[in-house]
Amino acid sequence: MLEHSEAARIVGERIRATRQQLGLSQEDLADLAEMHVTNVGKVERGQTNPSLSTLVALSGALNAELDGWVAGLTAAMIPGRTHRLSAAEFLREQASRRA
Questions:
Q1: Of 39, 69, 70, 90, most Cβ neighbours within 10 A?
Q2: What are the pLDDT tens digits along the chain (99 aa)?
Q3: Is 75:5 a contact under the CB 8 Å cutoff?
Q4: Which ranges carry the HTH cro/C1-type domain (predicted)?
Q5: In CATH, which of 1.10.260.40, 1.25.40.10, 3.40.50.300, 2.60.120.380 is domain 6-98?
């Protein structure tokens, strides 16, 4: 089974909460976002890493801002990443090696 990201799970939960607060079904959201209902379910369960196009379609359909869905997510929440440094940390490390 594929390893899904913690970030995808969190985003999916936030999308589901937004949809439920509006009283919409997954079918309603799929219709409004012009997506297949199966894909909406996969996004909400964190079983896929939604593309930017998918996130924009869902946010438009729900009249929601993407920043609320992705707030607090970090690169560490993506499985398989080997680079753990931020750009600032990387640049500091390079500078210290040159010194």
A1: 69
A2: 456 789 999 999 999 999 999 999 999 999 999 999 999 999 999 999 899 999 999 999 999 999 999 999 988 888 877 777 788 988 998 999 887
A3: no
A4: 15-69
A5: 1.10.260.40
Dist CA 38 CA 60 (whole Å): 19
Note the pTM of the prediction, 2 decimals: 0.83
Q: CA quadruple 39, 57, 4, 69: dihedral positive or negative? A: negative
In the structure encoding, which two tokens stand for residue 48, read together? 């896929």
Residue 49 in contact with residue 11, Cβ under 8 Å?
Answer: no
